[in-house]
Amino acid sequence: MAISSKRRDLIDATKLLLCQQGFEAMSPAHIIKKSGAGQGSFYHHFQSKADLAHHALEEISNEMIVGFDRMFDGDKSPIEKIMDYLKHPRDGVKGCKMGRFANEIIINNIAISAPVTNYFKHVENKIKTTIEDAQQMNMLTGEINANELAVTLVAIVQGGFVLSRIHGDAKMVNQATQTAVKIMQSLKNKAVNDV
User: Fold this and answer.
1) What is the pTM assigned to this prediction?
2) Is residue 134 in a domain?
3) For residue 55, is it within any domain?
4) Average pLDDT, the chain
5) CA spacing 20 to 30 A to 122: which of 81, 110, 136, 154?
6) Three-class DSSP category at 183
């Protein structure tokens, strides 16, 4: 029980530090101090900082996927689900928990970055299939490639986070997504007019 508890403490501390500091700024000493675990516990449960970070990122990724999927559950139309995703309030200065790792060295380490990649693949695929559902229901023009539109919408959100952090303005990401909402509305109107 005590061993699994220390492992849990180490993972929880790492999750918090990854979101606050990022991988590169986080040291094993920071993790040990934050978790209350000893150095022996750290290396008993994990081979390295990278190994621990992988486990922590897996949990963060899974938690974010659950939260993301909630926006796409229920009886709303495919267009409403996409709009809910775009209109979801975001704090741009805090940034995206997963997107921030794109600029860190860990993105080149497949073993560590896999949870980050898996999260974004999941998001892009869910949006793509929702766009395809909307197209099949003639709610969205079929002239646009669903995969390309999905990638564009994710890029708008992530780009909004980047600009918010650069300018220190938490609202910039939401300004970007408001424009994405207008793009979706335009594509929806085109579908209606084409019918």
Assistant:
1) 0.89
2) yes
3) no
4) 91
5) 136
6) helix
187: which 2 tokens?
């594509």
User: For residue 69, how far is the Cα from the chain centroid?
Assistant: 11
Assigned token pair, 163? 């600009």
CATH number, domain at 27? 1.10.10
Helix extents (H) in 22-109: 28-35, 39-45, 49-70, 78-87
Judge if 162 and 124 occupy the same domain: yes
Instruction: Check residue 115 and give its pLDDT.
Output: 92
Q: Burial level of 119, CB count in 10 A (0-12/13-18/19+)? A: buried
Structure tokens at 158: 């992530």
pLDDT band at 191 (very low <50, low <70, confident <90, very high): low
Per-residue tokens: 129: 């299939």
Give, as one character, the DSSP assignment of residue 105.
Answer: G
Range of the domain at 79: 61-194
Return the structure tokens found at 72. 């796409």
pLDDT score of 2 more than 50: no
14 lies in a domain? yes
Question: What residues have CB less than 8 Å from 63, skipping those under 6 apart?
Answer: none
